[in-house]
Amino acid sequence: MLKVGLTGSIAVGKSHVCSVFRELGCHVLDADQTARQVVEPGTVGLQKIVESFGESVLAAEGKLDRKKLGAIVFADEGKRQLLNSIVHPLVIGEQNRWLRALEANDPDGIAIIDAALMIESGGYKRFDRLIVVWCEPDIQLRRLMSRDGIDEADAKQKISAQMPQEEKKKFADFLIDTSGTYEATRSRVVEVFGRLKEFSAGLK
C-alpha cells in the first residue's frame, strides 16, 4: 500500500484537495479529526492537557474548549510545543493503527494522511510521498479571516505561528496550488493522483 502524507498551512484548502482524492478512490484520514478524538472526555489525552493547562480549558460539560486552549497556545510558543508534545504521539499512534488496518484490507490502495504539522513534527518521514498544499499568502489571509470570523491581526498571528509556506514547499514531492478556481485545483489533484498510481504500481 502506498502511504502518502499531505500537509500545508492553515486555510490553504487542504479539505477540498482531500475531498477530490477521496472521490478518486484514495483512503484519506484527517489528522484534525484524529486530534479531536484523542482528547475526548475520558481519554488520556484530555487528562494530560488538564494537568498541563488547568481546568480553565474545559467547557461546562467537561469537553475541551478548543477556542480557549487555542488562544493560549497561539500566543505562546512554549505552550504550543507543550500541547504538541501531548497530542502528537497520540495522533501518530492512531494513524499507525489506521494504516495497519487499511494495509490488511486493501494492500494495493493509496492511503493519505492529512496533517497540518506533519513536517514540524517529523511525521512526514513515515510516508512514501509527501504532498504540500499551498496558496498565495493574500488568499490564505482572506480565507482564514472569512472561515474563522477573525480580524486581520488575529489571522496573521495564526499564520505566523506556523512554518512558512515557502519552507514547507521544499519538502514536497508534489505541490498543489489552490490559489485558482476549484476546477483548476481539481485538475491538479487528478494529475497528482495519476502520478501516485504510477508510483504505487512500481512498488508491486
The number of helices is 10
Question: N-to-C terminal Cα separation, in Å?
Answer: 9 Å
Structural class: alpha/beta
List the secondary-structure elements in sequence, H or E: EHEHHHHEHEHHHEH
Would you mind describing this structure in some detail?
With 204 residues, the protein is α/β, with parallel strands linked by helices. The chain has one domain: Rossmann fold, CATH 3.40.50.300. The protein is built from 10 helices and 5 strands. The chain has helices spanning 14-23, 31-37, 44-53, 66-74, 77-105, 118-121, 137-148, 152-160, 165-169, 182-203, and strands at residues 2-7, 27-30, 110-114, 129-134, 174-177. Helix 1 crosses helix 10 and helix 7 crosses helix 8 (152-160). The chain is globular and about 50 Å long.
Any chance you could write out the topology, listing elements then pairs?
Elements lengths: L1 E6 L6 H10 L3 E4 H7 L6 H10 L12 H9 L2 H29 L4 E5 L3 H4 L7 E6 L2 H12 L3 H9 L4 H5 L4 E4 L4 H22 L1
Parallel strand pairs: 1-3, 1-4, 2-3, 4-5
Keywords:
10 helices, alpha/beta, five-stranded parallel beta sheet, globular, 57% helix, 5 strands, 204 residues
Summarize the structure.
This protein has a single domain (2-203), classed as 3-Layer(aba) Sandwich (Rossmann fold), CATH 3.40.50. It contains ten helices and five strands, in the order βαβααααβαβαααβα. The protein has helices at residues 14-23, 31-37, 44-53, 66-74, 77-105, 118-121, 137-148, 152-160, 165-169, 182-203, and strands at 2-7, 27-30, 110-114, 129-134, 174-177.
